[in-house]
Design brief:
Bound molecules: cytidine-5'-monophosphate
Enzyme class: transferase
Organism: Chryseobacterium aquaticum
Radius of gyration: 17 Å
Structural class: alpha/beta
Keywords: ATP-binding, Cytoplasm, Kinase, Nucleotide-binding, Transferase
Subcellular location: Cytoplasm
InterPro entries: Cytidylate_kin, Cytidylate_kinase_dom, P-loop_NTPase
Number of domains: 1
Strand content: 15-25%
CATH topology: Rossmann fold
Length: about 220
Amino acid sequence: MKKPVIAIDGFSSTGKSSISKIIAEKLGIVHLDTGALYRGITWFALQNCLNDDETINLEQLFSSFPLIELEFKNDNGELVLFLNHINISKEIRSHEVSQNVSFIAKQKEVRDFLLQSQRNLAEKGGIIMDGRDIGTVVLPNADFKFFLTASIEERTRRRYQELLSLGIETDEKFVKDNLIERDRIDSEREIAPLKKADDAIVIDNTKLNKKETIESILAYLKK
Ligand code: C5P
């Protein structure tokens, strides 16, 4: 039997990635956190493509694409992101990356660069992909589509805890402002904006914990 292709989209810090990871383990399928890819490109730009005034030089970034190899590798059971063979899984969660990623992700050249590799990974089925445009653009024919949402207060709390657990110093106001700003840029951009697919199932998990959200998704998958 062909394993399912599942698209999970939604607002920042609704738990998309951690929930998708557990569902993938339960179903024996692959999980792809597409946000990590956009963060990886942003990290590369911040390292290699800065103007004298510290802004990102987009022309330089776009011309560097042939030099960028993004790869997920299994590191003690965790799928972690490598850029040109360097493990950048912690670096991509930094403040600097979070503050610039939505600007990078709205560029057509960046989205085109990442689109085909995301689709190729889903060709054989058996994948859960989380992001912002998976159900609408990347995998419009996915077998199941979900759209996660939660209150900004709850999402702030979750991201703040996540950053602390990664050892990244931060404060709640900064985290909240960054979530609001990223959601705004992601929703308003011209290409592949953050949007619920018409046929996606909406799950508001403000009052659900991770386990309950997973159970609710699994219940739909069994239907
Ligand atoms: O999922 P995460 O919060 O790590 O995503 C970081 C950013 O990457 C988002 O705010 C968005 O700008 C971008 N992104 C995107 N399309 C996706 C996944 C992420 O534009 N499919």
